[in-house]
Amino acid sequence: MSQVKDPSLADKGKMSYEWARDHMQILTNTISRLKKSQPLKGLRIGICLHITKETSVLIMGAKELGADVSACAANPLSTQDDIAAFLAENGIHIYAWTGQTPEEYDWCIEQMLSHKPQILTDDGSDSHSKIHGNKKFASLKVLGGTEETTTGVIRLKALAKEKKLKYPVIAVNDAYTKHMFDNRYGTGQSTIDGYLRSMNLLFAGKRVVVAGYGWVGRGVASRCRGMGAKVCVTEVDPIRALEAHMDGFEVAPMSEAAKTGEIFITATGQTGVIRKEHILSMKSGAIMGNVGHFDVEVDAKFLLTESKSVREVRPNLDECVLKNGKSVYLVGKGRIANLVAAEGHPPEVMAQSFSNQLLSMIYIAKNHKKIGRNVITVPDEIDKQIAIDALKAMNVNMDKPTPAQIKYGQSWA
Ligand SMILES: NC(=O)c1ccc[n+]([C@@H]2O[C@H](COP(=O)([O-])OP(=O)(O)OC[C@H]3O[C@@H](n4cnc5c(N)ncnc54)[C@H](O)[C@@H]3O)[C@@H](O)[C@H]2O)c1
Ligand SMILES: N[C@@H](CCSC[C@H]1O[C@@H](n2cnc3c(=O)[nH]cnc32)[C@H](O)[C@@H]1O)C(=O)O
């Protein structure tokens, strides 16, 4: 009951799964610890995440804890086909392959939902939003859900604000052990990886423009600086712009940065951050892409449909010859470059995010009635425990406050 690109890739996928699993100690320890008690026994779990080697460790973990799992991709271009084949061979109902059309992407989400998940885990809220916006799924009885990323949480909070949210959701993104590490260090590294695989040009000495100085933007800007680039940040929030300035970055509006930038990376979750007028003012040779959310941060539609000509000059790099005669380049069709042009975040950082996911699924299973139709954060004790586990996995020791320090810290005198 699965649909993947090539089932014969399962053995390759198994090796990839094992490589990730062996570097996701926090997650695998949690799975081993809970295996005996089977906290997800008999539950149907629906997963709409990037189908990567790290995600396969989470999915196999949920299965080991007793769940019946159906899965689809959270992006039409991010599926690792060997991993999808491995999961299909291991009893997961999976509908995912890379290079989906928008219609196929939609169809796969619907197939995943056809397994009637009781707990729904999403990345970007495309499946949560389908349940809320499509009558076909109105009768689905979802006990609760989780959400992996910043933009997905924003969409769910908007539903809750309009009192339209149908079930409780845990905003996994909002855990400290998720956004401070995954969004910053994970995206920081995997963005460099994605851009390098697609363009294979030198960062050192280049003028890189990073749009957005949130968790993702900070990570990307700092890693680009580490590669020797001259980084300029664009922002709309005065506090974030001030922070970027004091972190030593140049800060400018996009209309100015566009004229001098050589590599552009958007990380805002917004729409129309790099627009037609910016693109037309860029230097010939400029390379742009996105690591925020949908393919609307950079105006990919303008580049891909209104250029004089478009050709893929390297994997995941389109040369767009504009009507003004300049050639500019788009990474990964404007979709998240770190997952489309590379393999997404490294396993160690996803171990933290996915430990939050797994423990949140279990929390929903036990507490969904108590939470009500709200978006809540990951309980503090889970967040802290993951930090403790991560330190242990990385062989890092820290101090404990002494009784005298605890007393001193609580005293007004
Ligand atoms: N590619 C990945 O693997 C990955 C990982 C984590 C998060 N994300 C996504 O990246 C996006 C950013 O996430 P975050 O956690 O950094 O969010 P955030 O809210 O911390 O930061 C977003 C920043 O963008 C700024 N911004 C908004 N509109 C802007 C504009 N027009 N120009 C310049 N700056 C603008 C905001 O002021 C804010 O500072 C979200 O869509 C999130 O879902 C992607
Ligand atoms: N559906 C949206 C979601 C944005 S992706 C952002 C999320 O991807 C997650 N992510 C990054 N790398 C990986 C990975 O390798 N495997 C699974 N998820 C990942 C990460 O936790 C982050 O919150 C879109 O495709 O545009």
TrEMBL record:
Molecular-function annotations in GO: adenosylhomocysteinase activity
Question: What family name appears in the similarity comment?
Answer: Belongs to the adenosylhomocysteinase family.
Is Transferase tagged as a keyword? no
One Pfam family name from the record?
A: AdoHcyase_NAD
Q: Cofactor note from UniProt? A: Binds 1 NAD(+) per subunit.
Q: Which Gene3D superfamilies match?
A: Adenosylhomocysteinase-like, NAD(P)-binding Rossmann-like Domain
Gene Ontology CC: cytosol
Q: Which residue range or ranges hold the S-adenosyl-L-homocysteine hydrolase NAD binding domain?
A: 183-344
Q: List the keywords (alphabetical).
A: Hydrolase, NAD, One-carbon metabolism
Entry binding sites for NAD(+) = 149-151, 214-219, 235, 338, 345
Copy the pathway line from the protein's UniProt record: Amino-acid biosynthesis
Q: What is its EC number?
A: 3.13.2.1
Q: What is this protein called?
A: Adenosylhomocysteinase
Which GO biological-process labels does this protein carry?
A: one-carbon metabolic process; S-adenosylmethionine cycle
- Cofactor requirement: NAD(+)
